[in-house]
Amino acid sequence: MDVPVQPSGCRRRLGGLPVPVLLPRSELSSGRAAGMAATALVDEVSTDTYRATLEALTAHPTRHSFSAAYRDAARTVSDRFAALGYGTREEPVAVGGRETLNIIADKRGTAPEGERQLVYVVAHLDSINEAGGVNSPAPGADDNASGAAGVLEIARVLATAIIRHDLRLVLFGGEEQGLHGSRVHVADLTDADRARIIMVVNMDMIGRLNTAAPSVLLEGATVSQHVIDTLAQAAHDTSDLEVFVSLAPFASDHVSFIDADLPAVLTIEGEDQLNTDEHTPRDTLTGLNISVAISILRMNTAAVATMLGVSA
Ligand SMILES: [Zn+2]
Q1: Which residues surround the ion ligand 1 when the cut-off is CB under 5 Å?
Q2: CB neighbours (10 Å) of residue 312?
Q3: Domains, the chain, ordered by start
């Protein structure tokens, strides 16, 4: 039986929402917010390994949440996290009468119990072909192999770093059916973990160049203003990205955290709604601009490393 699902991971509906605002560089301090250890990690972000991960993820015929190929992809990324030394687990996600899963990877910080805060880096792993069924081609290169490969690249860069606070990486399923993976994850959080979350960085569509100059949109809410500020400073320090800001979050997994009053921000290519290949078989690697993705990854790595209190 086919369970009717309403795709709500679609970013093409901007009607009625305020237009993101360009943040002038002059509004950022000239000093570097990131410490030397964080800055050194930024230079570990690799175009070659990121591209190889993108190729591996898009080699699956689809990553539709309910497909066998999704489970293959999830197993592959879980193995990758484990090989890097992360503690990994699966989180089952019920969607109507069906089931998909999230992959969670944890790295513990060095601060004493009770002082360790929690930093999240997340992306959805699933893809969709809106015009087809569960097994129709859905390479989902930009949406969202670009963000999932980004989580894996940040995992690689931070694998051996000494961090003061705890790092949790999550790849969600069921995003394209309505943010199910992140909704379940947030609902399942313990009160103790909920209270120590200081940052959630979501990557969804970070690999297309839709604007004349490379740009990023930081989309959050009042609860995540400090995360937006940290990311904007990191963009200034580590990239040439133009930074747009919006406080009207919609249609990706940061919304699940913001709805629970948690400080989440979506990092996404500028003018993402101009990507009309989203959710079609045309969302392939050839449409990506890897250097935009690497710039966004450099920004995110700097901001995350800074918030984690990285020291080596
Ligand atoms: Zn997406």
Answers
A1: 9, 143-144, 204
A2: 9
A3: 21-308 (3.40.630.10)
